[in-house]
Write a structure and sequence with these properties.
8-stranded mixed β-sheet; about 55% helix; globular
């Protein structure tokens, strides 16, 4: 048993470093570039299997010294790769400029060159263990998965105490321990020497940094700027900044001075992973600016409303609501650090003073009970936490409509400074929410008011009558805001205060004319009538099954997007990154799949068996990750945090799949075991298709640890079942030819590379349900491709 402990440690180090590198990209640039890490890791695993196929006999002959050498080599190249990654001058903004893109493509290639060797050697170590222990593949696979799950847990725990830039150096010693266990005295000395040299080089040469395009860079580097509080957690690195540039970020009229209203107050700025998520007060929240704010529009239509505010902004939002005439304010703040700031303060920012008119609710936004006159979503709510996007779905908005008083309304904010089409998609979502709520004519229940930078969609339970439209128009005119849409409001002939020209990927220029334009007004009537324009941008409603407002670019319009990449906002670039990673993954998968045609002598198996292997192992690589990613998205909503959801689903599925793999190594009827395992996996996926969303919603208000326990219990059966097919297949296919074993490992790895970007594109384009359905199809295909016994 001890001989597989090094494999356990190598797998743990590989997954731990993979997670640490995704956190590095999230802090240093943006999280979407973490897809590269997953791609590089799985590419390394796939290529290692190809190499093992070609050199299987040589590796077996030298296995005795290769087993301790490989973790030492991983230690050295892992440290060198980390140094190279931190010194890389990659700048995503230059990638969007055709004049500077070439240099950034070189930087991307340098990332691959720096990080690939580590994961290639990790894959080589795992595949060598499969070859050396070919008679107990279930046990080997079990140690591999259990080690990977342990590495994920370790990386998660380290995030509570270490900055993301220190995670990789902290995980590298696992490899030295693996080498020391695998080899004798000389190898132990060598492992300690390489570890000391690598860590010294890392601390002396690595230079991880936040690039200058991150939001935190400029305020952090102004004179007298101070970090007055800092929190480390798996959710991110939180930093509270104090400097003269930090103000409450709210949209105030240019006419504020004429109205006798002051500018928004100075504040602290709270940043997570370098992105600003909120302003926190540097005293008691001051809301004197509120009468001139765009966010005040719904209050002009309601008398002393009872308000539920989604997103507290450290107390500023409740103070603004009271200043605008609210009689009672219920604040729901799901982001835990911001919620703690409301209750206890953060660093030098105090908690707001107690006010009998304000209640800080512990409910989740999607499950909050009670009746309100106004559901007011804070302007910074969407950007405060990734999971807040679930509030912007048609299903959620329909739920809010059901909680409104007869004259009540919902106020939904969206930024328009980058692409006006985001607002149009919110309108489509509002229409769908009203349709779900049983409204026959949604266009009569919606109004849109905006400034040059932001927009508010007002969704009313009863239709907007002429009196309310006139009150809203007066509010807008007095503050030089634009009423882009309201029932009965003429589009033509209105004075437009804030020019908002339409942006099109089909045109090489931003459309301009002599008169000010309103791109949202142009499309509002069409969208609310259910006939949105058909062009490069997606204007379909955001739903619970597709809870993403972005990306907006349709896949058939990728060519136009690349031609106009300089006008696309950062959130749209993730789509292009996904497509690029998918294209690379498909090429890799084809290379690995075509290997038998070029190396038949190495494999020495019938063509029919190769054909079945070409279905079986790719299906497992695709199916496992498609199902896993679907569950990660649901777990992120359940736990209120994508990082926790990712880590817990990954760990649970790896650990229970590892147990399943060990169990598979002991079965005496493999065909029957495979059928049962696939039946359980498909059945659990079908149950999830039908009931996962209601189950998540029913659990949102339970204590966090109880939600964790429920998630583990729910994932255990399917994870256990998913651990069976791969070792069963390895054992069965290697009976046809021993060289099929490393090739199967390569196929599984290659199609796992395909699965990650494919799952993201499929989920964003069609919905999370399709991921589970596709996973069910993959495992059914694997069952059907099981090789028949030779006569």
């Amino acid at each position: 048993m001890q001989s597989l402990i090094p494999l356990f440690l190598i797998a743990g180090a590989a997954v731990g470093v993979e997670i640490a590198l995704t956190r590095f990209f999230a802090v240093a640039s943006w999280s979407e570039y973490g897809y590269w890490v997953i791609s590089i890791a799985m590419t390394g695993f796939a290529v290692s299997g190809v190499v093992m196929v070609l050199g299987r006999e040589a590796f077996l002959r030298h296995a005795r010294w290769l087993l301790p050498l490989l973790p030492i080599a991983m230690l050295a190249v892992g440290g060198a790769g980390w140094i190279g990654a931190t010194l890389n001058g990659f700048n995503p903004l230059e990638l969007q400029n055709p004049a500077t893109a070439e240099g950034q493509l070189v930087n991307i290639a340098l990332y691959y060159a720096a990080l690939f060797p580590f994961f290639f050697l990790a894959g080589l170590a795992v595949s060598l263990n499969f070859v050396v222990h070919a008679g107990e593949v279930g046990r080997v696979y079990g140690y591999d998965l259990l080690g990977a799950g342990t590495g994920a847990v370790l990386a998660l725990l380290l995030m509570f105490v270490l900055h993301p830039f220190a995670l990789v150096p902290a995980l590298l010693p696992l490899l030295a321990v693996a080498a020391m266990i695998a080899g004798g005295t000389r190898w132990r000395i060598a492992a300690l020497v390489v570890l000391a040299g690598t860590e010294a080089a890392v601390f002396g040469l690595a230079a991880p940094r936040v690039n200058e395009f991150k939001a935190i860079y400029a305020p952090l580097n102004v004179p007298d700027s101070r970090v007055v509080a800092e929190i480390m957690s798996p959710r991110g690195v939180y930093q509270l900044l104090d400097n003269f540039t930090e103000r409450l970020d709210t949209d105030v009229s240019n006419n504020a001075g004429g109205l006798g209203v002051p500018a928004p107050p100075r504040s602290f700025g709270l940043y997570r992973d370098g992105s600003r998520i909120a302003a926190l007060p540097n005293g008691q929240p001051d809301a004197a600016h509120a009468p001139a704010a765009l966010d005040g529009a719904p209050y002009a239509l309601l008398d002393a409303p009872r308000v539920v505010v989604l997103g507290g902004a450290g107390g500023f939002r409740a103070a603004e609501a009271l200043a605008l005439g609210a009689s009672h304010v219920t604040v729901i703040e799901p982001e835990p650090v911001l919620r703690a700031a409301l209750l206890q303060g953060l660093g030098p920012s105090p908690a707001p003073a107690a006010d009998p008119r304000v209640v800080i609710s512990a409910a989740h936004p999607l499950t909050a009970a009670g009746q309100y006159d106004l559901v007011d979503i804070a302007g910074d709510f969407l950007g405060a936490d990734d999971q807040n996007r679930n509030v912007f779905t048609a299903d959620a908005l329909a739920g809010f409509l059901a909680r409104l008083a007869p004259d009540g309304m919902i106020s939904v904010p969206i930024g328009i400074r980058e692409l006006p089409v985001y607002a149009v998609r919110v309108l489509a979502t509002a229409r769908e929410a009203l349709r779900i709520a049983g409204v026959a004519d949604p266009a009569r229940h919606v109004a849109v008011i905006r400034s040059a930078w932001n927009l508010r969609v007002l969704i009313a339970r009863r239709p907007f009558d002429e009196a309310r439209v006139q009150r809203l128009a007066a509010f807008a005119d007095e503050r030089s805001f634009d009423l882009s849409y309201a029932p009965g409001l003429a589009v033509e002939g209105r004075e437009i205060w804030n020019d908002l020209p339409p942006i099109s990927l089909e045109s090489t220029t931003v459309e301009q004319s002599g008169d000010a334009q309103d791109a949202v007004a142009r499309e509002a009537e069409q969208v609310l009538a259910g006939t949105p324009p058909a062009d490069a941008f997606d204007r379909s409603p955001v739903t619970a099954d597709r809870p993403w407002l972005s990306p907006l670019v349709r896949l058939p319009s990728l060519g136009a997007a690349l031609d106009r990449i300089e006008i696309l906002p950062q959130q749209e670039i993730g789509l292009l990154v996904n497509v690029a990673v998918l294209a690379q993954a498909i090429i890799l998968a084809l290379v690995v799949s075509l290997l038998p045609l070029l190396a038949r002598g190495a494999l020495r198996v019938p063509v029919a068996v190769l054909g079945r292997a070409l279905v079986y192992f790719p299906a497992l690589g695709l199916g496992f990750l498609l199902i896993e990613i679907a569950f990660i998205e649901h777990a992120a909503l359940l736990l209120g945090d994508r990082t926790s959801g990712f880590a817990l689903v990954l760990t649970t599925m790896l650990v229970f799949s590892g147990i399943g793999a060990m169990w598979a190594g002991r079965v005496t009827a493999p065909v029957r075991a495979l059928r049962v395992a696939v039946l359980v996996a498909v059945g659990c996926s079908a149950l999830a298709l039908l009931g996962v969303r209601p189950a998540v919603l029913a659990s949102l208000d339970l204590p966090w640890m109880l939600r964790v326990a429920l998630l583990v219990v729910a994932l255990a059966p399917i994870s256990l079942a998913l651990g069976f097919p791969f070792p069963l297949g390895l054992d069965r296919f290697q009976q046809e030819g021993p060289s099929l074993l490393p090739w199967a490992w390569a196929l599984n790895g290659a199609f796992s590379v395909v699965a990650t970007p494919l799952a993201n594109l499929l989920g964003h384009g069609m919905g999370l349900s399709w991921l589970l359905a596709a996973g069910m199809i993959c495992y059914t295909g694997a069952l059907l491709s099981w090789p028949r016994k030779r006569p």
